[in-house]
Specification:
The structure is a homodimer. Chain A contains 14 helices and 14 strands. Chain A starts with 7 loop residues before the first helix and ends with a helix. By secondary structure, chain A is an alpha/beta fold. In chain A, the strands form four sheets. In chain A, strands 5-4-3-6-9 form a five-stranded mixed β-sheet. In chain A, a hairpin with a 2-residue loop joins strand 3 and strand 4. The radius of gyration of chain A is 22 Å and the shape is globular. Chains A and B meet through helix 1 and helix 10 of A and helix 1 and helix 10 of B. The structure holds a DNA duplex.
Chain lengths: ~375, ~375
DNA sequence: TCGGTTAGTTCGGGAGACGAACAAACTCTA
DNA sequence: TAGAGTTTGTTCGTCTCCCGAACTAACCGA
């Protein structure tokens, strides 16, 4: 409701969003929803009854609890609409189907090298895979989120993928037009790291997410929303400087964290070829590998100290391939940040992502869910 | 309208805010406001007539323009309510009185060393000075903004000044309770650098503001609002790292920009005692001083490159004492950012503040104005 | 002087939330 | 076991606020 005049329906939409948001936590009766949201019991009934009618919400038997007439709990129906999270990656497609309560219903990963395929082909295929999965679930689709491997500007059908370092053929395309709509609306399109951040909202409404893949990406979540940036490239934490006259970087600068804590740098420093190997050596106690991990974590800690001084969030989540290396990186990052006046633990928490490589699809589903619950008409349109 | 249920009055408030916002630009007739906002002519009249009645808005004579009945322009009355911007600083109080159109009506600076005075005394005096100024203007006060020299957590009466490096006696106080309300509401309380940023909204809705005084402060403005931070200390750009093993900093870390581009570092490097002297020497072409300015600007550019990679804004404004040194700092900052892949000019603009030392009071007035226009009931309450 | 056009006002209607009243369902107590 | 007390869900009248259409007012041009 940032722009444009408000009319009566906007009030309904707002209040319905409030109710669905409250319902996200646990099943509740109309009366408890009323006290939770500040609405009247009557209003709650008027707003939710159409959704019960439409099969979006299910109504349980009265649950006795203390004195008075017991309330009948409402929850998101197990046969009601779902949202899709779709992540288009260099080497495949990752899809997740979630219920409106956020629970994962089904997930799948299809491996395929996308580097030689044109944008229309890649996104059409992604959409097909996602729709097949939804068909298998047999529940209507209320919306979708689409994670893409590069910065995005604009929203919905007009969203354009500005560049894609690892998939040059996708550059400049409009992903939502290539997939078509899901339910009645185009998918929410976002950068994979930005959307990946959203998968970690359980950690709180404010945090920084840093994810390593080929480069270092990230997302900054403030008040439950990802910082978009005016050109769609916010959260490029890989190019935060840790040493002004340090190693040359592909961006043209020198001393960017990516050159110290990026996967290529880390693997090179450790003298191994791939992450699983690195993990195994670290677990075996290889001192050279442990040293490399400590140095990478320390560089990351320097960069994150800068970031946190700027955006002031109380938590850091390490994701992507970093998640697999959390046992060694997290302590190193913590130590460096503590050294820089940010008391890790009570003040700034540092932790490894529990999602790992599927964070983008999970976050895309979450973005779709947020959209649908904020725009509940999408649930009744079909 | 982030939280809580929406009722009919919220719609009115929203739409009235929309109208006043549209009116901020230039006088407009009811009909043109209607087309600008998407409301009906009738609705515009219903919403604005009480404000005309109350003397907040003034109505002009019909202005003939083309065919048809000419509209009667409305604007913020020159005798209507004003907002106050108050900045409490180490060495004095800066106050600005602004009309609802944002025009400055009156300003004043009272010098006084605050270091030995307790918080209650300092803020009571600031409030008295501000109220005196408002009395002299003879227009009612609709609201105020209060800039304080340290990080702030909370809002309104509950806002607490977490610390004040240069005025230790103010630490932990609740400024809004010490000044009392202005109009019917407590002042908007914010950090001087955060609010100072708001003074530069003319440059666009998204930018980074960096201000040097004793330390380096800053504010990040996104979509016209200052990033608050979860602990009230967002925008601490002074502690962005430029050289991980560089000079030790008071924050406990090492290599923070503040140690390279802060005023003490800059003056020490240049071998002069104060900013005016520095300016004079630079203007005279003193090579040592020019070198020091170049080095400081370059360090600042490194830090700002990091910041911009994180928050992705298209402009940087140098304020505080930096503003006076813009002629030499701006080119150095630009050069360093360009070197790091951020094309200064078209992509990221770098410029010096036109407000200089009065930015905090100006920004505080702007914050108050935004609050009042978003909550137009404040205009009718008195 | 009379259409054409735009501005401002008035009035009926609709959307949506509130509050009070009421029926339903359960617990507790005498 | 009956009734009092309590809480839930529903219904209905009322209020606020907006829209759209109709009407009057004011100005231009032929």
């Amino acid at each position: 409701m940032t722009d444009g005049p408000a009319r009566a329906p906007a009030v309904r939409r707002h209040n319905l969003g409030l109710l669905l948001d409250a319902l996200r936590g646990a099943p509740s009766s109309r009366a408890s929803l009323a006290t939770a949201t500040g609405l009247t019991r009557g209003t709650v009934a008027v707003l939710l009854d159409p959704l019960v009618e439409a099969g979006v919400l299910a109504e349980g038997v009265p649950t006795r609890s203390g004195v008075g007439r017991p309330g009948r709990p409402l929850w998101f129906a197990a046969t009601g609409p779902v949202v899709l999270g779709i992540s288009v990656e260099v080497d495949g497609i990752d899809v997740r189907v979630s219920g409106l309560d956020g629970e994962t219903v089904l997930r799948a990963r299809r491996r395929r090298d996308h580097r030689r395929h044109p944008a229309a082909d890649v996104f059409a295929r992604a959409a097909r895979v996602a729709r097949e999965l939804a068909d298998r679930v047999g529940r209507p689709v209320a919306g979708a989120g689409l994670a893409v491997p590069g910065p995005v500007r604009g929203d919905g059908d007009d969203a354009v993928l500005l560049q894609a370092p690892n998939l040059p053929l996708l550059r400049g395309c409009r992903p939502a037009r290539l997939t078509g709509p899901f339910g009645t609306a185009p998918p929410v399109v976002g950068n994979e790291a930005s959307l990946g951040a959203l998968a970690h909202l359980g950690e709180g409404p404010d945090f920084v997410y840093v994810s390593a893949d080929v480069g270092i990406g990230g997302g900054i979540v403030l008040d439950g929303r990802v910082l978009p940036g005016s050109r769609g490239v916010a959260g490029e934490i890989g190019h935060v400087v840790v040493e002004r006259d340090g190693r040359a970087c592909g961006c043209g600068g020198s001393g960017c964290v990516e050159q110290y804590a990026g996967l290529p740098a880390l693997l090179g420093d450790a003298g191994v070829a791939a992450v699983p190997e690195l993990r195994a050596a670290a677990r075996a106690g290889d001192p050279a590998v442990l040293g490399a991990l400590g140095r990478a974590g320390s560089a990351l800690g320097v960069a994150l100290a800068s970031v946190i001084h700027v955006v002031d969030v109380p938590a850091v989540v390490l994701g992507g391939r970093y998640a697999e290396l959390g046992d060694w990186l997290v302590p190193a990052v913590r130590a460096e940040m503590r050294r820089r006046g940010l008391t890790a633990g009570p003040e700034v928490e540092v932790l490894a992502s529990a999602h790992g490589r599927s964070a983008a699809a999970a976050g895309a589903a979450r973005a779709a869910l947020d959209r649908v619950l904020a725009e509940p008409d999408l649930l009744l349109a079909r």
